[in-house]
Specification:
Number of domains: 2
CATH architecture of the largest domain: 3-Layer(aba) Sandwich
Radius of gyration: 21 Å
Strand content: 5-15%
Structural class: alpha/beta
CATH superfamily of the largest domain: P-loop containing nucleotide triphosphate hydrolases
CATH class of the largest domain: Alpha Beta
Number of strands: 12
Distance between the termini: 32 Å
Strand order of the largest sheet: 2-3-1-4-5
Mean pLDDT: 77
């Protein structure tokens, strides 16, 4: 059997995936790749596809993207390539893996995410020399995408990957819903301990392992002083061990090669950001209501708005139909407002039929093709 990592942070770029990755990497039972984003499952035509990838070297080479090659004393091996969200290769490979990895998504207010992506592309990556304002960026990434961006997949998918409801609907057809975890960087910032506790339970690791984690925010958008130094640093990372000291050294070098972005630019674009927030409100509100929750000995669902009540914590989520069920043991539950599905894995489909409207068209526990 070919070894593969058992945790994928598949997206979303510029939503705080680096911060989540770095906190997870502080846990003694978790290890990340040599690079935070190996891009091993990227499509061959993607401009970020590395020379060593699944197409050219096969699945066996995935292990070589980790310092321990999957043989160390860890419980979780993490590939945090946020580009996998829209890579067809990643979707197909992950769908066919047995066992499948757990897949995590970090989301963010779409309007703020697009602004962050604009600043990243303009000042850090320097990938859009013909774009000089946020409004021009939005005009360029709205579908149909400006032809001058077609060689940059991250820009091509900038708009569509901000539709989190569609993303989660698609990925719920790729991996079982109980193997999906969704959080937002806003939630993480507001109550980090709560998110890490839920994440620990989902991964099956001790939450106490995070008590010494010092990471608060990683990979903020900055102005790159020297593109050469940045590229050289990425190459050297492959030759250095993944230790806390080395990570601190890389952070120090990155900070020396960086200058802060002009924060007034956000205020100057406040009106456009507010307009985008209204435009994306339906998808953003749906994704905020979607959480994988860990409940206690029993849980119940009342009529909409639906409240989950468990022995260990409480969650609120708006669903289309009300269902009331009790389970004898803790279970990871996926509450999915976009498909109006509740999928506790230990619950037989026949037990839900009596609660689910016959004309709903979708039954919990079944994968559907569109």
């Amino acid at each position: 059997m070919v070894w593969t990592p058992n945790l994928i942070i598949a997206g979303v770029a510029k939503c705080g995936t680096t911060s989540i990755h770095d906190v997870l990497a502080e846990h003694p039972r978790v290890i990340g790749g040599i690079e935070k984003e190996p891009w091993f499952l990227n499509d061959t035509h993607d401009n970020l596809c590395p020379s060593v990838n699944v197409h050219t070297h096969g699945l066996e080479a995935w292990a070589r993207q980790f310092h321990d090659e999957g043989q160390g004393n860890f419980d979780i091996w993490m590939d945090a390539s946020a580009t996998y969200q829209y890579q067809q290769t990643a979707k197909e490979v992950i769908a066919d893996l047995d066992p499948q990895p757990k897949v995590m998504f970090v989301v963010r207010d779409p309007a703020r995410r697009l602004f962050s992506l604009y600043q990243y592309a303009r000042y850090h990556h320097r990938a859009i020399p013909h774009i000089h304002s946020f409004s021009q960026f939005i005009e360029s990434v709205r579908e149909p995408v400006d032809s001058r961006l077609l060689d940059q997949n991250l820009m091509v998918h900038a708009w569509s990957t901000s539709r989190y409801d569609l993303m989660l609907e698609e990925w719920s057809q790729i991996v079982p819903r109980e193997r999906l975890f969704v959080t937002s960087i806003e939630e993480f910032s507001a109550d980090r301990n709560r998110v890490l506790t839920r994440l620990s339970q989902w991964l099956g690791i001790d939450p106490e392992g995070f008590k010494d984690a010092t990471v608060n925010r990683s990979n903020p958008t900055v102005v790159t002083r020297s593109k050469f130094v940045r590229q050289l640093g990425k190459k050297l990372a492959h030759a250095l061990p993944d230790t806390r000291a080395i990570r601190s050294l890389k952070t120090a070098v990155r900070e020396l090669n960086s200058a802060p972005v002009d924060k007034s630019e956000f205020e100057e674009n406040a009106e456009l950001i507010a307009q985008l927030s209204v435009e994306f409100a339906p998808t953003w509100n749906a994704s905020k209501r979607c959480e994988l929750v860990w409940l206690g000995k029993a849980w119940s669902v009342s009529r909409s708005p639906t409240k989950f009540t468990g022995d260990h914590e409480r969650e609120t989520c708006l669903l289309g139909q009300g269902i009331k069920i009790s389970l004898p043991s803790p279970v990871a539950v996926n509450a999915s407002p976009w498909s109006r599905t509740i999928l506790p894995p230990q619950l037989a489909r026949s037990q839900l039929q009596r609660f689910w409207p016959r004309d709903e068209g979708r039954m919990p526990g079944r994968r559907h093709s569109n």
